[in-house]
Amino acid sequence: MAVAGARIPLFISVAAPRNGKGNGRSVKIPKTRVCNRLPNSRASVSEKISQSEAGAKVVKEIPGSYGPPLLGVIRDRQDFFNGREEFFKSRMEKYQSTVYRVNMPPGGPFFPDPRVIMLLDAKSFPVLFDTSKVEKRDLFTGTYMPSPDYTGGYRTLSYLDPSEENHGKLKSFCFEVLMMNRERWIPEFQRAAQELWDVLEKELASHGRAGFNDASEHMTFNFLCRSVMDRDPAAPGPASLGGDGPSLIKKWIFFQLAPINTIGLPRGVEELTIHTLPLPFSLVKKDYQKLHGFFSTYATRALDAAHKFGLTRDEASHNLLFNICFNTWGGMLILFPSILRLLGRAGAQLHKDLADEVRAAVRAERGGLSMRALESMPLLKSTVYEVMRLEPPVPFQYGRAKQDLVLESHEGFYKVNKGELLGGYQPFATRDPKVFESPEDFLPRRFMGEQGHKLLRYVLWSNGPETESPSLNNKQCAGKDFVVMIARLLVADLFLHYDSFDMEISAGALGSAVSFTSLKKPISF
Ligand code: HEM
Q: Whose CA is nearest to atom 3 of ligand 1?
């Protein structure tokens, strides 16, 4: 969902003592204070995750430093934008720890406190999902929150902690919209996908290459609007968006996420512009009003349900817009190219195996790409999970300690004070070598079979284990099952149409851009 620089980074802000310097000092605490151990059942899944020794735990100081005021923030910010994997890796090596203190962008002087305790392994990361231990209020975009002006003056669901009354109301509304359209998702997706393949084939025929990203952004928006609003975004009408929907959304998201993204301008220019001050909503006010006009005019079916949950139509409309445009469309903006890129790199044998599996399952369902057919495609399911493990579209999660607690990583136990901010860079948790064999490799069959299924609890893209479900009491993505279904549909539909494909990858403004250089049609199916 990141509009620039790749994915949607989500960070947090801290209220920790400024001199939080690791000095290797250890203190003993009684066994009962060890409140963040992974349950034994989880630890036993991977033989590589060692069991904690019984008895008193040695609790270490968290290593790392926030550095001198302001200078430390600027130093960490510059390092981060020079390459975030290297940013985290170099500090892991320096501190010999997957848990350490560091400033996360944007940070001062004009953004809130950036001090974070980063969690970079599969064992410590899940504390971020435990809402009895961490509060998730206003942490969706990280250590700062865009002005609520960007969302109609409301704090939308993604920014609410489950302890807030509106969280339950808005999440129920979100579930309701997903449910009320359940019969539409598959046919509308296939209809929009057919249009996408047609566009790409035409472009290939005339130019020898066809860009996937732009075309799929329109396809996704058409699919979502037709399903939820029974209407094409470009259909004539008083609140029509014409063909501008995707560009309006991108601009609106970009302005909210600019402080934590990079857009390829010279570092110094970005440092002085988008990374120093929040961008004012006034610059996108007209664009947002246009989008909101479309939603409030045409999303009648969904908005009619708002009162059932004690929501006003106005609050529901801004939340619906956020769910569809930011959460869903923004997520797919990242996810779809990831899927295509990893599939493309994997090559023709995987394409053939997927095409065989998809076509056999569809044949068994008498030609229909139904939920049942999708469920009977083990290779396809595993492939999609592997993409989401390797490249979780939303890589950062945050939570503020509700109480003093003790964290456990592979290396030991760490004390966290109430109010301190915990942050996780998810790709390091889902590429943890203590859990996954060859963690950096794309292994499409990784999640097949009994052993493979057991690993699903370490797939965390939805802000929770893949084996768990979103609820009113947690912050797991409300669209978890929907996203998995749509990702499977994209791959299944691709291989219903084509035997294989070739592509080129280039660096685009929004991460990598995928272009097809061939789409190979089956002789017969
Ligand atoms: C590729 C697509 C998507 C990805 C990668 C994604 C990822 C996430 C993540 C990581 C979070 C947790 C953020 C945090 O609090 O730290 C989240 C929350 C949320 N997502 Fe998704 N999401 C996607 C699509 C969707 C869809 C389709 C919907 C609904 C229609 C949705 C609705 C939500 C909502 C409402 C929340 C907040 C949940 C709560 O407050 O309890 N997302 N999503």
A: 331
Q: What are the helix (H) ranges across 265-377? A: 267-272, 285-298, 300-304, 313-321, 330-346, 348-364, 371-375
Q: How many CA atoms lie within 13 A of 240 on its CB side?
A: 8
Q: Tell whether residue 174 is among the known ligand binding residues.
A: no
The verdict on the CB of residue 463 being under 6 Å from ligand 1 is yes
Q: Is 335 in the pocket of ligand 1 (CB under 6 A)?
A: yes
Pick the CATH number of 59-520 from 3.30.559.10, 1.10.630.10, 1.10.3210.10, 1.10.10.10: 1.10.630.10
For the Cβ of 145 lying below 6 angstroms from any atom of ligand 1, the answer is no
Judged by DSSP in three states, 520 sits in strand
* pLDDT tens-digit series, residues 451-464: 999 999 999 999 99
Q: What is the ipTM of this complex?
A: 0.98
d(CA 71, CA 68): 6
What is the Å distance from ligand 1's center to 238 Cα?
31
Can you give the residue ranges of every domain in the chain? 59-520
CB of 482 shorter than 6 A to ligand 1: yes
Beta carbons of 144 and 111 less than 8 angstroms apart: yes
- Mean pLDDT (the chain) is 90
Residue 388 CB–ligand 1 contact under 6 Å: no
